[in-house]
Amino acid sequence: MTSTAIVIVLVSALAHAGWNLFGKKVSPSGAFFWYSTLWGALLTLPLLVYYFPLVQKLDSGIWWLVIATGFFQATYLSALAAAYRHGELSVVYPLARSSPLLIMLVGTLFLGTADTITSAAVVGILLIVAGCIVLPMQRLRDFRLANYRNLATLYALLAAASTAGYSIIDDAATERMRNLLDRIALDAEVALVFVILQAWSALVWLSIGLSFQKTERRLLRQLAANWRSTLAAGVLILGTYVLVVWAMAYADDVSYVVAFRQVSIPIGVVLGWYFLEEPLHPPKIAGVLTILAGLLLVVLG
């Protein structure tokens, strides 16, 4: 990874960890994420109008990718909300954040880009996954497969698969956009336009999903008064992802970006310890150190 990509992803990780700290105070649901996505789409509508000449230059292949990434983004948000309803944050979050790394490694084999990932980076990714699994435990002997055979794990893995899905699609789509808009738009502008289009696409898919769920439609009415929380979440989610997509332009393989994003996990642990007085059990410290070692290998790789 280049130094530019590292700095961009670090800023994104800080924003992501901050959003999770803020989000602990609100019960996640499909309705909550619908409002957050709506705010993100509406607030960036003036930018979409400003960049409409660029949008007009996009070909049908890119539009199909926008539709696909919106589906995966909507699935990710819905699955993540369901996972949090069925399990604890400290278990679901590391699983949902680390599992995409293994999926991305497998995906690179099918995409023919495995040669761009060094052996050091592969070891680093495996260390990150191992650290994330250990992180939620109070004692190392707490590890039992039975603790992971539940709906929370199922939905967390679905969220992880969706993360891998939209990451691969986003990398392909933005690379195609950069080639198409070469010398017309900066890389940051391409990332911004794409993420805005993704937000509108995800909003459509979320709306379709909520239309079939009576409970979520009821939550939509209840959350209408809590617009400040959904607005703040929408701004942070959108801003975070603009930085991630931008960083993809400076990495040899998207797996590097997805891996280095996990720096938000130790940041989140520190924020939880400092602001929420969450205990630092030995496995949690060991998990953070393992993740940091993995991140170092990814950067060096």
Topology:
Blueprint: H1 3-23, H2 30-43, H3 45-50, H4 52-56, H5 60-86, H6 89-111, H7 119-134, H8 151-180, H9 187-210, H10 214-223, H11 227-247, H12 254-260, H13 264-275, H14 282-300
Helix pairs in contact: 1-11, 1-13, 2-9, 2-10, 2-11, 5-8, 5-9, 6-7, 6-8, 6-12, 7-14, 8-9, 9-11
List keywords for this structure.
mainly alpha, 0% strand, 301 residues, 14 helices, globular
Structure report:
The protein is mostly helical and 301 residues long. It has one domain (3-300). The chain is built from 14 helices and no strands. Helix 6 (89-111) runs antiparallel to helix 12 (254-260). The longest helix has 30 residues, at 151-180. The model has no long low-confidence stretch (mean pLDDT 79).
By DSSP (H or I, 4+ residues per run), the number of helices equals 14
Structural class assignment: mainly alpha
How widely separated are the two ends? 8 Å
- Uncertain residue segments: none
The largest sheet, given as strand count, sense and whether it forms a barrel, is: none
Count every beta strand, where a strand is a DSSP E run of 2 or more residues: 0
Shape annotation: globular
Order of helices and strands: HHHHHHHHHHHHHH
Mean pLDDT: 79
Strand content: under 5%
Radius of gyration: 19 Å
Helix content, binned percent: over 70%
Number of domains: 1
